Each structure stands twice: as structure tokens, then as C-alpha cells.
Amino acid sequence: MSDTTREVPPHIRLEAWSDGDLGLLRRKNAPEMTDHLGGPESEEKVLSRHDKYRAMSARPATEGRMFKVVLDGTGETVGSVGYWPRIWQGEAVYETGYGILPEFQGRGLAVAALLAVVEEARAAGGRRRLHAYPSVDHTASNATCRKAGFEWAGEVEFEYPPGTPLRSNDWRMDLRAGG
Questions:
Q1: What does the DSSP 8-state code read for residue 9?
Q2: Which of 104, 119, 145, 175 could be stapled to 171 by a disulfide with Cβ–Cβ 3.0 to 4.6 Å?
């Protein structure tokens, strides 16, 4: 990259999860997308998750949101991102999760989506911090958190899927700073 050439961040937009997004959820349930999440879920669990995500769109933003990530210009759906409330180490926080489909990875879209959901959570108010808990072995997801400006808070024992211990990194963003 020359001095006169600057990398332009990808332009994405977030759209509230809707009835038509079940196909995206099924694509994200592939082995290559769930390798660090305990593997693919049953169709029953995928349908239940879809219902949960749709319901999030109808609730107040302080109760969380799930979005599909859409590439500006082409309108292609490239993944998903969201945030939801949880209690973490005695504090009311938001948790975030994200995933970009394999054919769109490596373009900075996960970082762009994560930065966009930070702004959504910040605008919602209600919680001071947003946390992400990628597996310690998931190099790309940990790099996404770092590049998006999250602060590393250390390794933690996390449970995902429920009942399954997972060694994770705890990344956090102060939603009251910089906004």
C-alpha cells in the first residue's frame, strides 16, 4: 500500500432480524461457522433461535437486538451481529455475538459490523459495557475484537452452548466512552 493509498473501511448496514432471515441462520449453522461454538445445532434449535431473534426486533432496544449485516452497494447479506443483556461477574452488561459468512471473510466486515453494533448498543442505553467472549483458540474473532477497539479483560471460563465449559477471552467496550 503506497503513501497515497488508504484502505477504505467496508460499508455495511445493519437491518433488524426478520421473518426472511431463517436462511441466513441456517447458513451460519454450518460446521465451518460453528467450529468454535460447539458445532451445528439441530433444526429445532435453529428454528427456536430464529424465533428468539425475531422477537428481539419487537422489544425495546435496551433489551437487545439482532441484525443481519448487509453490504452496501450490492445489498448482499454477509452475516449477523447482535447484542443482548446479561449479568457478568455481578454487573448488568450487554453481550455481543457476530459472524460473517465464509465467502465474505477477510474483508474487515466483522470489524465493521462489530463497530456498528457498538453504536446500536450505545444508543440503546441501559448498560455501561458491551462484552464479547470468543474462544481463546478463535484467532480471527479475537483479532476482530482487538481491531474494533475492545479492551482485553483476560481469559475466563464461559459456558457455550449452555452446559458446555469454554475457555474464552473476555473483551469489553465501555459504551459511555467516546460516544
A1: P
A2: 145
